[in-house]
Amino acid sequence: MVKIGITEKKDENFSEWYTQTVLKAELIDYSQVKGFIILREYGFSIWENIQSILDKKFKKDGTKNAYFPLLIPESLLNRESEHFKGFTPEVFWVTKTGDNDIENKLAIRPTSETIAYESYAKWIKSWRDLPLKLNFWNSVLRAEIKDTKPFIRTSEFLWQEGHTAHETKEEAEKQVNVMLKLYKDFVNEYLALPILTGKKSDKEKFVGADYTLTLEGIMPDGKALQMGTSHQLGQNFSKPFEISFLGKDEKQHFVWQTSWGVSWRLMGALIMIHGDDKGLILPPKIAPIQVVIIPIYYDEGKKNEIIKVIEKIKEQLDEKGVRSYVDSSEQHTPGWKFNQWEMKGVPIRVEIGPKDLDNDSLVVVKRNSRDKKNIAISDNPADSIIKELEVIQEELFESAKMKHSEMIFKSDEYNELCNRLTNDRGFIKSAWCGSRECEDKIKDETGADVRLIEDEAISSSCIVCGNDATNSVYFAKSY
RNA sequence: CGGGGUGUAGCGUAGCCCGGUUAGCGCGCCUGCUUUGGGAGCAGGAGGUCGGAGGUUCGAAUCCUCUCACCCCGACCA
Predict the structure, then answer these.
(1) Residues 386-405, chain A, CB closer than 7 Å to nucleic strand B
(2) Per-residue pLDDT tens digits for A107-140
(3) In this predicted structure, what is the pLDDT of residue A331?
(4) Domain span at A425
(5) Both A459 and A334 in a single domain?
(6) Which of A's residues 182-211 have CB atoms within 7 A of nucleic strand B?
(7) Looking at residue A344, which CATH number applies to its domain?
(8) What domain count does chain A have?
(9) Mean of the pLDDT values across residues A384-401?
């Protein structure tokens, strides 16, 4: 048998497995420019599904969509100096039109805070204009020279960025929490991915934020992946950008702001966590094709009969909103199609051949467990298929949770922590005093960072220096 | 930025050390027939500025110089 699928095993060579999977499942292709990828139609339709679900949730929370320009004048970008310093090494600049130099160079947006807030200052006049809650679906560019990986680290990425302005600190704080919860629910329920949530350390937070809340996943190679953030910006931008309003108290106040985002990194996590040696495994709720139907026949007469049955089933599935596809192409054998659609992660495969017709049955195969089951053609198969899809969604989340918990350890002894971080990787939960010195020491000695700080207070001593510690944190190496 | 490596058809490669027919092979692609329940078979066919520029030579994929791109290992990094 020729080996033309994915040639590397997920646990043996994870990095190569990942690259082959994203390419061979036709999610992406590489572009001519390093660090940039092409999102192909199959990959894009996953992104569209993510978009449409999140978009509904955002709108329900009162956020509206808008679009801001790609190019940002330097003067705007550096108005908030901390923010500017954080991004400047990664900014792409436009310095020419044709052969002529541009007098004031323009940044290609690395994120839209500055250009949006310039406008917010004009639009917000009174407390009646608040809250202002806008979201942008766009792409941003941050130069990544090394270590690029499709979906995980690329110079251009698709994402959404929400930007809100509020009357009070408390309202902004509430917004930050609401968005974190919204993301978490989405990632759990639709992507079937377990995550940890918490606060970033000062070192790791978004430059320009008072604090950052984060969603962190753990990948099969034991490295953490930041999958979304929600920032309390406080008045760090409203002051330099002069976003102020006349309050009910008839005085001028600066607004309190938040920003929050998720990117196509979510797709990277989806691929890494659910995939197996045969390729992708997509959760039904996000899969562009939930059911692929493959006809099998040996002669023209049977072929017509089978096509007729398939059309009927397809119709039933369409009516119930199940996304299905009939692969009736004649250039490949059924065996080839089985492998192909498994590589592309379609949750359910339905096979119908002459033997099935004779028995009034069709074969239903689950991608995740590869269990085969016969169900009756005459007995409303669409309903059974829908039930199976629900089961698959559930099973994927359960198995992901299992793997997730196996990657989390606790430690209260420094050498053990270092050994774990170096050898086993994963998340290590420990107590930390909150000092930059201790954080840097672990980074220097193991390469790991503080991924998140847990909310609940504890009383313990720091794993590094032994001084008082008030919170548990998770250390990990990260992407 | 420092060190190492690789560029030959859409993809994967042989040939290079030691210069000499028409640059070979596998996959894929096209045509036809037979096939189709776990990656089908046979027959015929199309497809190459050998990454680019310059040089040595009667003659360069092969030797020399420069250059570009990509990959790996380090340093740096929302």
Answers:
(1) none
(2) 999 999 999 999 999 999 999 999 999 999 999 9
(3) 87
(4) 408-476
(5) no
(6) 204, 206-207
(7) 3.40.50.800
(8) 3
(9) 98
